[in-house]
Write a structure and sequence with these properties.
about 190 residues, mainly alpha, 6 helices
């Protein structure tokens, strides 16, 4: 039998940040493996976008609201709905429900998310270095993807893929660091 270590949350509600960070990070890595050219856009990425990147982050954001964390609420629910909207932009035209967005439309969509992420980055300056890195690299990722759609230069997208893998991996690191540090009651993986 494996002994369990009970973890007591101060307010009786578990920390939802690891769920949100891992959901964002894992989905981001998978999409950007595609962007970097390792495999095609497929149902595995779309399913992760709906269920883990999308719904799991929305759930984490709702729990952050219960914990009175406005930053966590805004970040997790926004990026959860980002993933759901991105999957919608890909799937809805294939189902004949709407016209596919133009390159200019996708550029505008990605610029808006880049601006939003840049604004959220300033909130991380009061938090930790790990989150600062996640939000800074995500800001760069959105603007690289916008540049690809705005210029038609696929090199931006391929470079964004590699940068996005780093961004997603940093979010996974931050999520797992939160779990390990809480379980062990000390800094196991530093967040800065």
């Amino acid at each position: 039998m494996i002994p369990t270590i009970p973890v007591q949350a101060k307010d009786g509600i578990a920390n939802p940040a690891p769920l949100g960070l891992c959901a964002f990070g894992m989905t981001t890595v998978l999409l950007n493996l595609h962007n970097a050219g390792f495999f095609e856009l497929n149902s595995m990425i779309l399913a992760m976008g709906i269920f883990y990147g999308g719904l799991a982050q929305v759930i984490a954001g709702i729990i952050e609201a219960k914990k009175n964390n406005t930053f966590g609420l805004t970040a997790f629910t926004s990026y959860g709905f980002f993933w759901l909207s991105l999957v919608g932009l890909i799937v809805m035209p294939k189902l004949g429900w709407a016209v596919a967005p133009s390159e200019a439309g996708m550029c505008a969509y990605l610029i808006m998310w880049g601006v939003f992420t840049l604004c959220m980055f300033f909130g991380t300056l009061k938090l930790n270095r790990a989150l600062q890195f996640v939000f800074a690299s995500l800001t760069i990722l959105f603007f690289l993807l916008a540049a690809e759609h705005g210029t038609g230069n696929s090199s931006f997208g391929k470079f964004a893929g590699y940068e996005g893998i780093i961004c997603g991996a940093s979010a996974i690191y931050a999520g797992i660091a939160n779990v390990l540090n809480e379980v062990y009651g000390k800094t196991v993986w530093p967040l800065g």
